[in-house]
């Protein structure tokens, strides 16, 4: 084996070791391998090879992350887009995934459901504080100011007030 083949074998082994622990985007994997001291030009070849073999699939990764964000974390579309961008998913793939995952979603209903879940034991005693907390909570999950305002305009139920 030549020195280059040995180097590629080490990069492949390191990449596979990382991928057995969790899924990565191509950008994340490249960053991790560079931190281990492998040359960027050789990393690129291994990443291309892994994409061809479908060991790396940014679209599938993005789909799982967006679905998880919506179902478990209550992310709005904007927050999911930011998370995908941070992970290195390309703009075209992000748009496709977000359209697929968030197209049937009513963000106002999602936000109201999140607030019901958060305050199922009751609202804080101070109405102004409750409004501030609700606005901050929803903003951190990526809801727009317009959506937050719509949620805060109506009480969550007949006996609750904002």
Explain what you see.
The chain is mostly helical and 162 residues long. It has three domains: 50 residues, Orthogonal Bundle (Arc Repressor Mutant, subunit A), CATH 1.10.10; 45 residues; 47 residues, Arc Repressor Mutant, subunit A, CATH 1.10.10. Helices cover 70% and strands 0% of the residues. The protein has nine helices and no strands. Helix 4 packs antiparallel against helix 5 and helix 8 runs antiparallel to helix 9. The longest helix has 19 residues. The mean pLDDT is 90.
Output the helix-strand order: HHHHHHHHH
Report the mean per-residue pLDDT as an integer: 90
The amount of helix comes to: over 70%
DSSP summary: helix tally? 9
Quick tags:
single chain, 162 residues, mainly alpha, Arc Repressor Mutant, subunit A, 3 domains, 9 helices, elongated
Chain-wise SSE layout:
Elements (H helix, E strand, L loop, with lengths): L2 H19 L4 H10 L4 H13 L5 H14 L5 H11 L3 H12 L4 H12 L8 H14 L4 H9 L9
Helix pairs in contact: 2-3, 4-5, 4-6, 5-6, 7-9, 8-9
Provide a brief overview of the structure:
Helix content is 70%, strand content 0%.
